[in-house]
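Example 358, ligand zinc ion.
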Amino acid sequence: MLVLGIETTCDETAAAVVERHDDKPGKILSNVVLSQVNEHAAFGGVVPEIAARAHVESLDRVIAKAMSDAGTNFAALDGVAAAAGPGLIGGVIVGLTTAKAIAMVSAKPMIAVNHLEAHALTPRLTDGVPFPYCLFLASGGHTQIVAVRSVGNYVRLGTTVDDAIGEAFDKTAKLLGLGYPGGPQVEKEAARGNPVRFMLPRPMHGRSEPDFSLSGLKTALRLEAEKIAPLSDQDVADLCASFQQAVVEVVLDRLRAGLRVFRERFGAPSALVAAGGVAANQAIRKALHRIGFEGGTVLVVPPPALCTDNGAMIAWAGAERLAAGLTDPLDTAPRARWPLDEVAGPQPAHSYFVAPKD
Ligand code: KG4
Ligand code: ZN
């Protein structure tokens, strides 16, 4: 099964072609990601109008490259998938409309993919992980622990009650005068810092429900930074290291709780898997290995380039849905909000993007 996937929900314009065979990892034939980072950098965050315009300007080219890298053409495809949300609505409209147009002119099924579902299914693309598994999804807009039971069957076990982890990394970077996106910058600074210089809180520690809270940590960091301002380069590195260490310990504690709840409700998971941009962080990846080792649970973390937003994950989720007979009509609406677990409902309201004045 050959599927083209299109991703435009945030600040990457991406397209990929992926091949799927039953009960096997997928094969990525092409994976083109054009980052808009430079267009947003001056604003310290993603500006929705700039993002939507940049998607319009480059998406056709990105798709053409994905098709030629894969050595295929529209007629050979089995389906065309696009992320139909959640995300910045202007960008989502661009990607979804383009997918509809390609599907219509080439008479192929269209698959409207939930961006979060694409992150959730990526470990099956890379490693063919069988259901059910326990997913730690940590991106710029979401921090959740999810039981992935089958394609389309996701049970949210825990979520953040305020900021997402990626958002906390981004806001920390902004506070310390580091660039956007913040995660990689904070990680880089942390590598030369002292993780025990500042005593920062570990919110929710010890709670049995596997929920997260990050805003107290962010505030504590700001207060520490204000106390010692002006900040030297070493102060910045030490603040980053202390922040990252706190996040690592929060992740360890919350995931232990998540795995406990998973076992109680669904039995042993086939694996613990991580997805979303935050899973690109090496310190967090190490913590995940530790949890997997402790519980004898197989750990699957896709390579960093497949943790951050990309077209391959959309193509793969499209192929999984297509294999399950799930396709969508051409009047499918784009969605700014779209919870992965429709029963658990939407996330508590918090900003999905960092607005220029944030
Ligand atoms: O999944 P993703 O690429 O886009 C969304 O769907 O949000 O995740 C982006 C988020 C950003 O908040 C970014 O700062 C964070 O992932 N991130 C990281 C790292 N790389 C990306 N956070 C911590 N350490 C990293 N190395
Ligand atoms: Zn994402």
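Summary: The pocket of zinc ion (ligand 2) is lined by residues 115, 119, 139, 276, 309 (CB under 6 Å).
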